[in-house]
Amino acid sequence: MSKKEKFKQYINEGYTFKKDYIIIGGAMLNEEPVEDSFIKIPLKTLNRHGLIAGATGTGKTKSLQVLAEQMSLKGIPSILMDIKGDLSGLAQPGASNDHIVWRHGAIGVEYKAQPLPVELMSISNEKGVRLRATISEFGPILLSKILGLNDTQSGVITILFKYCDDNKLPLLDLKDLRKSLQYITTDGKSDIESEYGRISSTSVNTIMRKIIELEQQGADLFFGEKSFDVNDFLGVNEKGEAKINIIRLTDIQNKPKLFSTFMLSLLAEIYESFPETGDDDKPKLCIFIDEAHLVFKEASSELLDQIEVIIKLIRSKGVGIYFCTQNPTDIPDEVLSQLGLKVQHALRAFTAKDRRAINKAAENYPITEYYDTNELITSLGIGEALVTCLNEKGIPTPLAATLLRAPVTRMDILTEAEVDHVVNTSALADKYAEVIDRDSAYEILSGKIEKVRAKEELVKKKEARELEAKELEKQKKRREKSPVKKRTKVVRRKVTKREDSIMEDIGTGLIRDLARGLLGVFGRR
Questions:
Q1: pTM across the whole model
Q2: DSSP designation for 149
Q3: How confident is the model at residue 186 (pLDDT cuts 50, 70, 90)?
Q4: Cα dihedral sign for 103, 342, 145, 295?
Q5: DSSP result, 337-366
Q6: Cβ neighbours of residue 182 under 8 Å, at least 6 residues apart?
Q7: How many CA atoms lie within 13 A of 131 on its CB side?
Q8: What's the topology of domain 3-132+225-406+414-431?
Q9: Is residue 195 over pLDDT 90?
Q10: Phi then psi for 437, rounded to 5 degrees?
Q11: For residue range 85-120, what is the model confidence (pLDDT) as tens digits?
Q12: β 118-122/244-248 pair status
């Protein structure tokens, strides 16, 4: 038996499954495709998470697209976090060309271009279904981790949530949170301290600064109502094709805090909402996180711990999570160890640091006699990748250099008119378009503070009037007891007589002078 025949047998034995699967490409040996050597992923293990890694321009985004397509065709809905804005083309059919014809002929699968059901979504000002969540839905623990608070500051948040729950103050958005924090250190300070203990003003000021930092990244658009129901991510059309939910995040590339906040809140909400599924034949939902390094870029150790916990637990809810990034080292080891599927595109070694990263990446893959992984990982072409997944028993499949199939949908973005059409024909867009700003903690506390201020103002005015009245009464009594008034009248009369005498003297003098003048003139003539 030739080496090629042994390799083919090796691949077919490793990728033979009893239940349904998706085909993502064909195996290669010595840089050549081997016919009838399909690289398959069993649907049963798609909830064991995955990694798509590779240098810029090696085709990892198209691999993400292929996986989402094949899942949709098998009735598995997905969520795609579109950071670069190049995934919307899933809503339109692809276009064949000579290279695609050759590629699919070499793999041994038919190429059939077609559109798939797509829902465009947004957490910012992008067009699409608006995704929102309330502060209350986050809860004090998750909110503290997102803000990166220490134990003391987390305690303040816990007390705040307890106070708001006890007093029926809904915490819906960031202005509710800020107003509540302000209230417990000013007007409501005595109530808080008597019931829940003292609150550190320093801790509150620190929390306030962190909230403002989150606001500056645009989180005020995300927090609020109407809250998104995660069950609306699910859905299959009459053809049996599952919905592909594309969350457009191009305007938050430079806002990693907001991105990680949204991602973690989404995972937490799905985990809380979905029931335990047991050992299903296929997952209920798969989530693809493009540019995944943004999730971990500014994450605190507490936040990383929370992500790791959710990654471990959420697969029991029938949910798979797939990270797409340039290098496996972008993903923390604790998370990387949980990923069953690995699709490794080419890495480039320009520096000693790059070579060390490649050596570390190669250690994550099964050893095989057919490849020198360290060498092959730098020589893969565009649309080629090293692939290994878990079989139905949870055992890693053989490592295979794979020629990946081409996407059946458009490998480009939608036009503005096409985006408008997808959004305008969406039932969910209408459902979540309205921004609800009902009375919550901000309005209730503002009204309470205003009433307190108005009452204080009335008390101050009353006290001022009473003080003024007392002063006038004192002045009146002093005048009645004092002789100054009579003397004043006498003086005034004296002054008046003196004024009359002066005026009389002035008048007499004027008459005399006038008479003299007239007489003098007539006399000289």
A1: 0.78
A2: -
A3: confident
A4: negative
A5: TT--EEEE------SHHHHHHHHHHHTTS-
A6: 208
A7: 26
A8: Rossmann fold (3.40.50)
A9: no
A10: -125, 70
A11: 889 999 999 999 999 999 999 999 999 999 999 999
A12: parallel
Burial class of residue 482 in the structure, from the number of CB atoms within 10 Å of its CB (0-12 exposed, 13-18 middle, 19+ buried) = exposed
Contacts of 10 (CB under 8 A, 6+ apart): 370, 398
Residue 187 CB neighbour total at 10 angstroms:
14
What SS3 class is residue 493?
Answer: helix
Strands 384-388 and 400-404: antiparallel
Tokens of 113: 């271009």
Q: Work out the pLDDT band at 450, boundaries 50, 70, 90.
A: low
Tokens of 515: 């008479």
Q: What Rg value do the Cα atoms of the chain yield, rounded?
A: 40
Task: Yes or no: say if 377 and 399 are a contact pair by the CB < 8 Å rule.
Answer: no
Tokens found for residue 422? 């997808």
Could you give phi then psi for residue 31, rounded to 5 degrees? Answer: 65, 15
Phi then psi dihedrals of residue 9, to 5 deg: -65, -40
Which amino acid is it at 361? Answer: A
Q: Are 49 and 321 in contact (CB under 8 A)?
A: yes
pLDDT tens readout for residues 417-442: 999 999 999 988 888 877 666 666 66
Per-residue pLDDT tens over the stretch 232-266 = 999 899 999 999 999 998 877 777 777 777 888 88
Does the pLDDT at position 525 exceed 60? Answer: no
What secondary structure letter does DSSP report for 186? T
128: helix, strand or coil = coil
Angle (CA) 35-37-41 rounded to 5° is 145
Q: Write phi, then psi, for 429 (nearest 5 degrees).
A: -60, -45
So what's the pLDDT on residue 73? 97
* Angstrom distance (rounded) from CA 1 to CA 240: 43
Tokens 């938050």 belong to residue: 252
Averaged over 5-32, what is the pLDDT?
Answer: 93
CB neighbourhood size of 171 (10 A): 25
Question: Which DSSP state fits 405?
Answer: P
pLDDT given at position 442: 60
H helices of 363-440, where? 373-376, 416-424, 427-431
Q: What is the mean pLDDT of the chain?
A: 84
Contacts of residue 28, defined as CB under 8 A and 6 or more positions apart, other chains included, come to 34, 384, 400, 401, 402, 403
Strands in 30-112 per DSSP E? 32-42, 50-53, 78-82
For the purposes of burial, counting CB atoms within 10 Å of the CB of 23, is it exposed (0-12), middle (13-18) or buried (19 or more)? middle
Q: How far is CA 52 from the centre of its chain?
A: 23
Q: How many CB atoms lie within 10 A of CB 490?
A: 9
Type of residue found at 515? A
Burial status of residue 320 (CB atoms within 10 A of its CB: 0-12, 13-18, 19 or more): buried
525 or 276: whose pLDDT is higher?
A: 276
Residue 218 tokens, joined: 């645009």
Q: How many residues does the structure list for the chain?
A: 525
